[in-house]
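Risk register update: the risk that structure generation would not scale has been downgraded. Supporting records follow, first protein first.
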Amino acid sequence: MYLLTRLFLFLTKSPDQLAKERADAFLAEATDLYDLEFRMRKLDREGNVRQPSWMTQH
């Protein structure tokens, strides 16, 4: 049942929601302030060169 619930939630979330959750999780893994700033800059750089999902390699 848990798997079905997770699948349903995954399928009903928008791509923007999924991207935000991924970014939040990535930032939450920071070990200190410097790591957090590095991760924030990395997300900013990646956000500037976004491509349509069908063009990404993952």
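Supporting record for the second protein:
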Amino acid sequence: MTHFVRDLSLRYKIPLRVLMLASITAILVTASILFRVYDETRNDLLRHAESMGRVLANTLVSPITHDDVWRAYEIINSPFQGGGLDRTQAAETILVLDTRGLVYVSTQPVQYPMLSDPERLDPEYAAISDLAMNRTDVKSSVIDPPNSSRLFVTIPITSEEARLGTLVMSYSKDLFMPLFIGIAQRAALMTLLALVVLLPIAWYWGHRMAGPLVRLAGCMDQIGHSVPENLHCDLFESHDEIGRAGASFKRMLKELKEKESLEQEMMASERLAAVGRLSAGIAHEINNPLGGMLNAINTFKRHGSGDPHTLKTLSLLERGLTQIKDTVAALLVEAKVGSHPLSHRDIEDTRTLVAAEAAGKGIALLWENDIAADLPLPSTLVRQTLLNLLLNAIHAADKRVECQVYRDSRSLTLVVKNDGAHISEEEMPYLFEPFSHLSRNGHGLGLWITYQIMRQLNGGILVESAPGETRFAITLPIQEEP
């Protein structure tokens, strides 16, 4: 049960705690009222008892002096006649004790006969025996014996300072119970009405207060080892503690996403850099024997026999080795120092180079070139990058390829789109690796070379792919010459 209450949602804990607090408050207020009513009722009863007792004690002086028992009996029974007393003010029993503490007369002569010892007949009267025998005590007393069901009011009966006896009036404590029960019932009814009114208010407050925390907890539950891509948290925003917690959580999510993106970029960059270093090392090792082999073939063709079959075989070997040399050269991407600044004509030359390829496949080539003045960028590398993107797009396209080249004050942007099959999320991390099995044409070096050029020029590349359109966007920073 403890675990169930502890694990209960705040949407239910808050209303339950409000109702519990209201109930405890109602109980404490009712108890306070009951104690106060008890004290006031008891004090009123005792004041009335003392007042009536003095009247009876003064009236009993003459009958006791003349030993008129019947007259004394009529006097002590007079309060019970006429019905003028409230039930809570009516004495249960009135006894007149003589100076020896024995019954002189009582309102219940059968239960307390004359000259009987009331203590023996009823042990609760033991508490008043000492007062009855005390001849010097001339003051009234209120006696509330512990563990007794009655209160006792004793009034001495005196004549010229002489003690004639003691008037004892007993009151049942049960007289207070109907009053207490009535108050408790009214308090319970009012508490119930208050709870009925508070329940919807507490429920509303509970949802208002716990709702933001519930949404925050729901968002936190969705976060595992990584932040989901499509995670959207509709969190409460304010300047209180809950609002600040939501704002901090949003900020944390943003930082986690940026951290994951940076980690992925670093991993991809490190992987490609490692592949690049390996490829470059292999390329250098291959270039030396490859160059020697091509030189040997060239020498043999110039100075060897003119046998046509041999020359044909050597030509086949030369073309194969030349293709290997071109592939190896593609692995050694180096900036061309002598490259002239990029111009409008360079972009248009690239269009001319790919136009025949696009026309041969029936691909519509949409072109937009907003470059007017020369830009301080190496034209050879930019053209190679744009050419690689366009050839890949043409091979992947179904009907259309779009190219947009434009600049702003700080950068040059190359955008190439095609309407072919889109690139899946699983393929994205391996898109720029050389000789990738994901390459749909060629040896897969085009995008890898493009990536290496972007690193040399401190540029960036963004790939977006969905069914019906794949978009490559390259941004190259422009450093104006002084």
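The radius of gyration is 55 Å. On this basis the risk owner (M.S.) recommends closing the item.
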